Amino acid sequence: KKSNKWPSPPRLPLIGNLHQLGKHPHRSMYHLSQRYGDLMLLHFGTVPILIASSADAARDVLKTHDRVFASRPHSKIYHKLLYGSRNMASAPYGEYWRQMKSVSVLHLLSNKMVRSFRDVRQEELSLLMEKIRESGSSPMNLSKLMSTLTNDVICRVALGRKYGAGTDFKEMIDRLMRQLGTFTVGSFVPSLAWIDWICGLDAQLDKTANDFDELLEKIVQDHEDGDGDKADFADVLLAVQRENSAGFEINRLSIKAILLDAFVGGTDTSSTLLEWEMTELLRNPEYMKRLQEEVHTVCKGRTSVSEDDIQDMSYLRAVIKETLRLHPPVPLMVPHESTEDDILRGHHVPAGTQVMINLWAVGREVATWGPDANEFKPERHLDSPADFRGQDFELIPFGAGRRMCPGISFAVVLNEVVLANLMHGFDWGSTEDHETEVAESIGAVIRRMSPLYVTASPTT
Ligand code: HEM
């Protein structure tokens, strides 16, 4: 057994390596990994965290040692906001998580369910296209339109109706996402946890949790009182509970927690992907042209693109893969934690060790992607069998292994049909300076720092 001597940058007392993380930890960690290797140890305050920054390291953690690293670290924020971590995304590895995942995979996010929401996608997409047409040639905030679209689709699919801009629900979702991305002193330096309390964080989290619970309780109650024939997520979960068809009991808190998962996991991630795709296509007009040609060829003589047309669009899929490679919406994934002592690459890893996979670094590995790894080039995927479904570790924007994203099919089908229709319906322009790099936001989901403003003219 070797001692725990992972390559590791020198650290300061109390704060560890936090001062080296800066505003964009995925970028700072990428630079540190160039010096300390693809599996290095950092200290966030007093908490040791392994950082995996290559396809090999990701495979070691998510495949070879998947079972041991399949848990999630305890987080006070997640615990308070997400029903004591009864949601799937932050539940510790174990029987409860297994049950929630199987309900989600089999009853909510199966291919059959994803297909059943085709009309919802189509209707919301038509509304989006209408809004874009209405804006005429004046610049519009495309980021906001994307965010509204994904929020509306998930609201309808999960709750059966929309809770759009100006409603309490939308304000609460925005607040929830902000708070989930908050950095708390207490998580990394437990002896200073009182600072969070003094700053009022605990009270703010309690308020958000209560607001959500009141609203979700009412929504679930309305579903119970209704005829239940709409088959949105709330209907399905109540039916599974009533009929005991999952083979285990699902209580009210679990139902509300799983409903929240769809919003936390699915809204910002999906709109962010669309935002980066359009950003890269506007910065690379030759690729936008090639994509438009493909879409127009496949859909010749038609007024819009249907989901059936997508299978013939290999360039569209290449653009999506390339965007996910360079701009994984959740660049540091969701942290994993080991449940037992383990030996990884010859080093002893004690139970309870956290691991982060830096997808942003994995997507920029020169050994895999070549010397032009930093360039946006969809062509690189045309002859490559690598896909993002969790088998090819050089491209894992949805994770891999047991904790892999269960919403992948849901997300991909929406993304493909929206992007294809944007290309089919309009010619796009922007006044952005394409020479400078686009600034990134902070938080767990990395979108553009400033919204994407564009002009659109209908294609003839
Ligand atoms: C472009 C869109 C999306 C991206 C890039 C994405 C990415 C991810 C990633 C990286 C993880 C962590 C995987 C891991 O820890 O190993 C994850 C987990 C998860 N995602 Fe997604 N996701 C997307 C859309 C969705 C959608 C639409 C839903 C649901 C409607 C969803 C629900 C979840 C849930 C519940 C988890 C937690 C799974 C678990 O802990 O077992 N995601 N996602």
Q: Quick one: CATH class?
A: Mainly Alpha
| Uncertain ranges | none
Shape: globular
Give me the count of strands: 9
Mean pLDDT: 94
Give every kind of bound small molecule, once each.
protoporphyrin IX containing FE
Going by CATH, what is the homologous superfamily?
Cytochrome P450
Order of helices and strands: HEEHHHHHEHHHHHHHHHEEEEHHHEE
Q: Which structural class best describes the helix and strand composition?
A: alpha+beta
Strand content: 5-15%
Instruction: Summarize the main sheet.
Output: 4 strands, mixed
Classify the fold: give the CATH topology.
Cytochrome p450
Distance between the termini: 68 Å
Describe the structure.
This protein is an alpha+beta fold and 460 residues long. The protein has one domain: Orthogonal Bundle (Cytochrome p450), CATH 1.10.630. The chain is 49% helix and 8% strand. It contains 18 helices and nine strands. A four-stranded mixed sheet has the order 1-2-7-4. Strands 3-9-8 form a three-stranded antiparallel sheet. Strands 5-6 form a two-stranded antiparallel ribbon. A hairpin with a 2-residue loop joins strand 5 and strand 6. The longest helix is centred in the middle third of the chain and has 32 residues. It is globular and about 65 Å long. The protein binds protoporphyrin IX containing FE (HEM). Protoporphyrin IX containing FE (HEM) binds next to helix 13 and helix 18. Protoporphyrin IX containing FE binds next to helix 13 and helix 18.
